Amino acid sequence: MAGARKPGRNFLFVPGPTNVPDRILRAMHIAMEDHRSSDFPKLTLPLFENLKKIFKTREGQVVVYPSSGTGAWEAALTNTCSPGDKLLAARFGQFSSLWIELARRHGLEIIVQEEEWGTGVHPDKIEEALREDKNHEIKGVMVVHNETATGVTSDVAAVRRAMDAADHPALLYVDGVSSIASIDFRFDEWRVDLAITGSQKGLMLPAGLGIVCASQKALAAMNAKCRRAYFEFGDHMKANATGYFPYTPALSLLHGLRESLAMLEEEGLENVFARHRHLADGTRAAVSAWGLKLCAKEPNWHSDTVSAIMVPHGFNGAEVIDRAYRCYNLALGAGLSQMAGKLFRIGHLGDLNELMLLGAISGAEMAMNDIGIEVEPGSGVAAAQARFRGAQMREQQRIAAE
Ligand code: PLP
Fold it and tell me: What does the pLDDT look like over 305-338, one tens digit per residue?
C-alpha cells in the first residue's frame, strides 16, 4: 500500500489546475517554432477571435499574457488606473483579499465592503456606496465572480444593475478566473469593462496564460498612470493586430488553447455550463447526505465549479486532505487563510464527468471516516449517484417525448 509509486491516475480535484484532457496534451506536444514567422498568425488570429466567444463579447478586446491569473489582475488594474484612484471592492474570501492587496500595492485606494465569508457581493450595498459618491471619485468596482476559496458565486448582472441604478460611470472589473468557460459569463450583456481569467481552470490547460478582456470604455482609460511595462495593453494590441506578440509567447499553451476552445465549441458553451451545474448538484447532494454544510451560506451563493465543505468542530480539514492524498491518491483543495483547517474543497470544473467525480466523493468519504469524522460510508456516493441517475432518466424521457 505504502510504496513510492502511486499506480493509476492521480485524482485531481483541486479547483484548478484542473485535468488537462489528452487531446490538449497532444496538441501542446509540439516542436518549438518561430513566433515571428509568416505562418504564426494562422494560429493566433483565429485564437484571438475565438477567445471572445468564451467571454461572450463582440466588442471586447482580448489580451493574452504568459502569466497566471494574478498577472491578469495586475494588467487590468495598471492599464486603467492611476495611483490614488479609488476603487470599490467587496472582500469575502482569499482571492478577493489578494486582489485588493495587489491593487493597494499599486497605490490604489480601495474602499472595502467586508462581507461574511460564505457570502459574496451585495449589489444593494454597491449601489448605496455609488449613490453616495456624488462626485464620481470611485473609478471602478472590483468583483470576484466566483470566490474559489469559499465556493461562492456572486451575481455580476445584479452588480451591473446596481451601477446603472446609481447612474455611476465606474468601470466594472470582474475576476472570472474560476467561472469563465465553466459558469455563465456575459461580458457584453453585463457591460463588464475588464474581465480576467487564467488558463488552468475552465480552459483545461496548465497554468501559464493570464487573459484579460477589455471593453472599449476600458481601453479609453489606457492613458492611466500606474506603472506598467510587461503588462502594457498597448504593446500587445499593436503586435496582436497582425498576429504577433511583443515578446515570446507561451507557444505550447497557445496550441493547447486552440484545442481547448475547439473542445468548448464542440460541447457547446451552454452545455458546458449545464454539465458544471449537474456535477455541482451531485456534489451538494453528497454533502447533505453526509450531514455536513457548505461554506456558502445559502443556495443563491452556491458555486457550480467548487464546493467548500465545512468539517465538523474538533476536526481539521487539512487532515482529510492529507489522508486523501497519501492513501487514496486524491487531491482535494485546502482551506485558505481564515478558512484554514475548517474545510476542504472539491473542485468540479473543467474536463470532468460523473464517474470521475464519484471517485472523488468516495475518496473524500473514506478519508473523513479514516480520521474519525462519522459520515455514513457510501452515503455521499449514493446521494450523488441518485442525482446523476435521476437527471439521466429525465433526459431519456425528454428525448422519448420529442
Ligand atoms: N482569482 C481566483 C478566483 C482564483 O481562484 C485564483 C487562483 O486560484 C486567482 C485569482 C489567482 O490566479 P493564479 O493563481 O492563476 O495567479
Answer: 999 999 999 999 999 999 999 999 999 999 999 9
Q: CB under 8 Å to 138, separation ≥6 — which residues?
A: 86, 87, 88, 111, 129, 130, 168, 170
Q: How far apart are CA 345 and CA 324, in angstroms?
A: 12
Q: Is 226 in contact with 76 (CB distance < 8 Å)?
A: no
For ligand 1, mutation pick of 77, 91, 102, 148 (most atoms within 8 Å of CB): 148
Give whole-number Cα distances, 125 to 137, 166, 250, in Å: 17, 11, 41
Cis peptide before 17 (omega within 30 of 0): yes
241-298 per-position pLDDT tens digit: 999 999 999 999 999 999 999 999 999 999 999 999 999 999 999 999 999 999 999 9
Query: Using one digit for the tens of pLDDT, what is the confidence trace for 166-195?
Result: 999 999 999 999 999 999 999 999 999 999
> Comparing C-alpha atoms, which of 112, 115, 111 is closest to residue 137?
111
Whose Cα sits closest to atom 5 in ligand 1? 148
Residues near 314 by beta carbon (within 8 Å), at least 6 away in sequence: none
CA distance 151 to 118: 7
pTM over 0.90: yes
What was the pLDDT predicted at 5?
79
Tell me the three cell numbers of residue 341: 483547517
Residue 266 backbone dihedrals phi, psi, to 5 degrees: -60, -45
Does the CB atom of residue 68 touch ligand 1 within 6 A?
yes
Asked if residue 69 has its Cβ within 6 Å of ligand 1, the reply is yes
